[in-house]
Structures are given as C-alpha cells and as structure tokens.
Fold this protein.
Amino acid sequence: MSSGLDAGVDAFADEVGSEGPVTIGGLGTRGGSVAGVRTVAAPPGIDWIEPAEMTMRCGAGTPVAEVEAALAEHGQCVAVPAGGTIGGALAVGHSGLRRLGWGPVRDTLLQVRYVSARGDVVKGGGPTVKNVSGFDMCRLLVGSRGTLGFLADVILRTRPQPVDERWFTSTGDPWELLAGLFRPTSVLWDGTTTWVLLDGHPDDISTQAAQFSLAATDGPPELPVHRWSLPPSALADLSRDDGPFVAEIGVGVVHHHRPADARNPDPVVVDLSRRLKEAFDPGGRLNPGIGPAP
C-alpha cells in the first residue's frame, strides 16, 4: 500500500510536468528559486526511521531541523548542514564544518527518487551500500542544484549522535593538530588562530585538550560569505594580506571575504558537464540559468 509520501511524490511529478521552464523552491535558506519561472516544491514529511539500520526516509521538502529533532529521539543525527530543507542541502552539496570527521554530504544520500525533465519519477541508489555499475545517481545529483532533476524523496544514512562535542582554540600549528589529535571533527584556521572541534567521550575530549593545550571556546569563528575550493595542500599558502579567511584544514574549503578568482576550467570537465546536462535535460527546462555549486 502506498504511503502518504509516495502520493506526494506522484503529485509533485504531475506538478513538474514535461513542458515549459520550471524551478524548485524551498525555505530560501540557500538561495531563492529562479525569478519569473513557475515554481514547484518537493513533498515534505518523514516516512520512516530505522534506528537499528541507521537509515531514514523523508521527502526532499522536509526541513533539516525537523529531521534533526526526530533523529535526536533515537540518539542519532545526519551529516547534513543545518537550516533549510533536506533537498536544498543536497542539491547545493555544501558540506558543513564537520566534514573532516563526518565526511562529505554526498555520502549521506543512499537512495533518491527525483523528477526528471520529462516529468517521470526516477529512482537511483538503494537503501544499502552496494557496488553498482553505471552512473552513481546519488552522487551525481548532490550539488547539481536541480539542473539534472528535482529531488522528491530520499533515504539517508544516519550516524550516532556524539556523546559530547566541544570547540577549542589554539595558537598552535593547525597541521600539527590535525596530525596529532585523534580524529578531530573540524580544524579551522584563519592564519593566526586555530579552532578545533572534538567529539566523543567527555574524558577523552578533556585529555586531548590538555595534551595539546587547547582552550575552550563557545564555537567556531564567524565565517566570511564566499566559498573557495582548493587542494588541502594549498591552504598553507593563504595569506591574511589578501583579506580575512577561515580555512577548513584537511578539507580544502576556504571561507573568504571575496569571491574566488576566475579560473580556466578543465575543458574535459566542461564538456562532460555539458553532455550530462544535455542527456538529463535536453530542453534546459529545469532551473534554467542555474550553474553548478561553487
């Protein structure tokens, strides 16, 4: 028997249809829909949570806060940045500050059903991790910003909620801290100060903090609005002379006060992206004018 979420997905596909430009909207946390284009919204709602299997299913329009609250009742959480909807977080593809310890947001998505440019409901992935051939649809759709298909409902991988987690600061070398600490969840650096997030048993956190002379702090620094992506090894070359920044050590993401410099893209990557877009949406009707996430 179909669930209410299944009916919502079917209605969502009917709303998207197969003709004319269309854009998808959510809570507006990660950017609005395309102006002047018919707007649709993915179905919300949590269908089920399987704590023993560490998986859950929900509509892409479900607020992240609602998912977090529901999982907290089972002592679990999900590695998706706070705010907005689940679909919006996956479509943009930006991982949160815990990426170093928790992995990229794309690894959270196990199965997806999305609405194609033809208005069809298409399934990719599965509720368990297996070796597959062909496109890895889940990873392909994460970060595509709705240009290949509109996320309808998802099955997510959950993780245990940390027993304790605390932020610390240090004037020590961030790369030495990265190498010396036991699985830090986040290591941030602004060229002068290092911030470290540790999670686990409270006694273990306190021991590490004492060993590396870490000072407790309320949280991470305020992040500049622009986002760069660099090889992790290139972060050591950053200079405060070029303006304030906060770098995610071991990850390669830099939060900067100015937009990233224009770079000459790899023509092979550009051509592959073009062909994928043409294969999934030859008429260019899904989120027209939206480019890939920076």
Remarks:
- The chain has two domains: 4-160, 164-256.
